[in-house]
Amino acid sequence: MGVGRRMGKKQGVPAPLDESAVTRKRKNLPEKEEEAPKKRRRGRGKEGKKTEAVKPLKATAAVSSSKQGKGKVPNGKPAKVEKSKVNGSKNAPKASLLEDEDGISDVEDDASNDGDAIDDPDVLEDRFDGIKFGGLDALGSASEDEEEDDDFLDSADDVMDSEEEKITGMWSEDEDDEDAEEKLTAANIAGLSQQLDEQYEDEEAEADAEREDEILQTNIAGDRPKVVEDDEDEEGGGPSLLAPDLQLLRSRITDTVRVLEDFAKLAEKGRSRAEYTKQLLKDICSYYGYSAFLAEKLFNLFHPREAFEFFEANEKARPVVIRTNTLRTHRRELAQALSNRGVSLQPVGKWSKVGLQIFESQVPLGATPEYLAGHYILQAASSFLPVMALAPQEHERVLDMAAAPGGKTTYIAALMKNTGCIFANDSNKQRAKGLIGNIHRLGVKNTIVCNYSALEFPKVIGGFDRVLLDAPCSGTGVIAKDASVKTNKTEKDFLRLPHLQKQLLLSAIDSVDHASKTGGYIVYSTCSVTVEENEEVVQYALNRRTNVKLVSTGLVFGREGYTSYMGKKFHASLNETRRYYPHSHNVDGFFVAKFKKMGPTPKNAVPSNPNAAKTKPKVQEPEVVDRTPVGAEEDEDEFGGFDDEEDEMYIERGRRAAMRKKGIDPRAAAKGKKDDGEVDGEVDGKSEEKVGKKPDEKVNGKPEGKTEVNGNAKSKAASKINGTTKTLKASKKSKKSS
After folding, report:
1. CATH fold for domain 383-597
2. 406 labeled part of a ligand binding site
3. Mean of the pLDDT values across residues 181-199?
4. Where are the domains of the chain?
5. Is 408 annotated among the ligand-binding residues?
6. pTM, 2 dp
């Protein structure tokens, strides 16, 4: 670009204008009034709009221009158009347009060269008097004069932009430049914005159409090879020993899921949904490492897209969560203490008042002073849910049938504020030791730990206000913690575990007191997501115990349980149960159901443990022996009775041993009571007859020598004792006399 006027270099005086040419042009203006609209249309072909309000403006402009002095230019200054001709720049109006749009004007630098010869302030007042302007057409009459001037100056650019016409028509050397710019800006806003909106809409519509076509073509072309043909499956048995291409499997899984979501549009011709599903399950087993049986069972729980999200979430660990022990501290104080140790944490959610989620820790959470002092316990967020559903009250009797390692039990104790009584039972003795350790560390004082089979509990003790049963399960909800579940669970496990869970749930129901004023509730929970361990077990309990019903868990989030699944229909009240998934709630997979016991268990109800009747006689035999009264044994002398003389000997020996520990000689004490020592001799004689003589008869058959030795020893001991007693008596008399 050349050096502009803004750089300080100004142009010289332009050549004088030929006034005869200007006069000829003025005379011809009224005659070309009808042809002007054609040029106007050519100049504004893009807009395609022209109002009739401009016509009177053109006539007025023509008349007013003819009234001016013929061939005379106002103030004797050359026109602006001549300047553009002299400079040899046909695009000078465009340059001025850019300057006006940017808010930069150089009128002050060269006011004499920027004026329009035909636009005098007085003429403008007469020309625009009584005319209202609006939109882009408001400046149409002024732009036509400019077009005609361009024709007069032999300009090759007959088609001019509408914006250029507006600016040149309003321009005047005597008019305030800033006011002119404001008028132009206000006039351009409506028209330009409308043009841009229409242009953007057209472009977006075209782009959307192209995008849809590309996506459709890409999907159709990409989904065709997803289903492997039968022949290829048979031939592909050889190279299956090679490691699979994980990236290829991942892309194929996502593409197959997309096809199953919109099968009608994206599926290949001749392919069924079963083929795509079979291929997807095969890829899931290869990519995530599941057994074919478990992958299909979990896949049937969700839609294809959600199933993919579930499998993906099981590959990521759940957040580390700790539970505040409110028996020793508060959550705010604990959070402050751990933050000071470099632990990054925040509340686990609005649904819990004691949970804290740990993001990063510079110290081991299981060895901090707060942990050792029992201020918190490491516990998964999903384990809060059964206790929150149970909602134990103070001064109640609560049973936790499977309590180890103690997270739920200690939470119950905290909610009860160490009041009432909790029976924490676990059938595994080794796990019960860990339960005892957590109970002591967290300061729980209202808990009794026992080691029974949960099936025996209605007979061991009953009448509880509330019972919590966190039943043993397959662990399909905690695959992120235990990846072995992917392969070690078989069909037998899903037959054996539900059978045990059904019996345990019936035992829990029978252990509750239906007449409890504050309770009568049972909570059943598992860390599994399969229907066989959850809805089917609950349905079995409703069928076998007609005195219970499902009630709301009181949990603020979670999905409703299934009321129908793969052709199976369940009770309508199962929508009160709650399911939790790792991909939707960011907690371990969990199931929670809450029962309310309405009345006593019927006598003809199915027993909770059908095998108990067979083992009854075996259990009662040792109990009969243990409960036999001691007095009855003495009277009947069934076990040979007791030997009183032998018992007296052992009692006397114990008495003497106790006296020796106190520093008292038992024989001297006996002589103090009886000076002649007859009592002591009789006791010794009896002991020798019972104990001393029997071994003497067995040793070489010489009892006489033994008795003599014992006699000599006794005589010497007696003499010593008598001497000591005499000295003691003498010392006592001397003290009294003094």
Report:
1. Rossmann fold (3.40.50)
2. yes
3. 70
4. 18-197, 244-313, 383-597, 645-694
5. yes
6. 0.56
